[in-house]
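Issue: copy button drops trailing tokens. Both records pasted manually instead:
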Amino acid sequence: AVVSTQSGHYGRGLMLTKIPYFKEIIVSSFRCEFCGNSNNNVHPASSMGDRGVRYTLTLTNTNDLNRQVIKSEWGCIRIPELDFEIPPESQRGSSNTVEGFLLRTKEGLQSQQKDRREQHPQLAEQLDSFIGKLEDLIGFTQPFTFILDDPSGNSFVENPRAPKEDPQLKVERYVRSKEDMDLLGISSIREALDNEVTDNQNVLPEENEDAGEETSVRYNENTEIMTFEALCNACGRDAVCNMKQVDIPFFKKILLMANVCDHCGYKDSEVKSAGGISEHGQRITLTMTDAGMDLVRDILKSETAKIHIPELDLTMTSGCLGGRFTTVEGMLENVRDQLSSINPFSFGDSAPTDGTETAEDEGKDGMKNVISQLEAVIRGERLVKIVLDDPAGNSFIQNLYAPDSDPNLLMEEYVRTDEENDELGIKFMKTENYEDS
């Protein structure tokens, strides 16, 4: 039970539940029968994601106002058109629609307007003007942008077209900054652990300080693996990162990085190109003809690559799976698992249960169908085309006939668009005669 801060009486408390194919959450539904105070919150019961996430939704019609949104206690909502922000401490841990968040903001601003008009009339007038603009968005008089940024990775914006790509919704996963880690308390955990270690260890003599720095990065000549200290993305404690450079035949060199935390058991792996961005983008199309052979092909997907399976009308945008070096079968399993987690509203109570499905409800059924068909491909019961499109040109699918050409593998190079160059951060980069600029 929870005590009301206004009356001191007990109200109803907490419930642990799970959104199917998403995460466990704690629902706090509180109401005091004596003073009428009420509050509803949602808190993640699982660990943080390994990266932060930023959803950018462009609303183009009134239906977009009904998209479901989960805002964790670290999530921040911004609407650039109004230069408006809902900070993490406001509407903490909420599950609502886009319209619902705007309505709650409007109600919160209106609640004290009567007192403001008496005490601060100029401020009240400015807020009246802003509330009018909020009402225009709620009534959808013009398109606008809804941005949800969460460094913990535990927030979500619904894609009603899933598993298809949503042209109105851009999802970016990013490495947390120092400010993000301070917000999440990860920096505080590490500082406390560092202080604890310092207090319990003897200080090394000054002449050994350089030697200690030299041993922070170790290189094993036999395995050619470099080992160095890193920060665990899950618990914030010191972890170990193993890195090795691998030369893929008939392709290029890559870096394999594996992070292991002995404290919480968290493991993560990542693949990065050891070279730069290629001069052209590259599109690789694998036409499966023999499941036994094609599913065991090696595949390298860089973090900038998209995966498209035309037969399933399925597209996984860049950044969804990060950089991975695995087999075709392993990649399809990663895609299946990702689809099962990115759209929780396709399942459970949010899924359609009667014969009155709308176009969005049909999309929810489509998610289940695509996952079922993906599992058939993984089992080798269905053959499809797999398209790996990488603007950076750093992805690869194994050629089983190398050094000869593979009849089932089509490789195409293309000129990147300005938008792709901008996403790669090279649109305005000058690599020749830069000293003259």
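Record 2 (pasted manually too):
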Amino acid sequence: SSGINAEYGLAKKSDMYSGFQQQDAQEFLSVLLDTLHEDLNQGDIKRTFTMPDGDGKCDREVAAESWNFHKQRNSSYFVDNFMGQYKSKVTCLECSKVSITFDPYM
């Protein structure tokens, strides 16, 4: 059946699906979407870039720059429809420098 073929295909990508243990549905969906994205990715995966620095820029601008860099390497239906960004803000306890990043998640 196609369900068995799908499970076998995922087992080749992730060891956690090779046995008979029960798996979390969210984790299964995450591995499935990531696997499909990898197979259909039209982005330039060899391209490297430095994440933009948020010093003095508004969050919207930094988020847009981060997303544009991500899209240059990751371009697929799954990125367009199932990915987003989360904001991370870290403040150094010694010098009080604030670092704000926007990271992709699926």
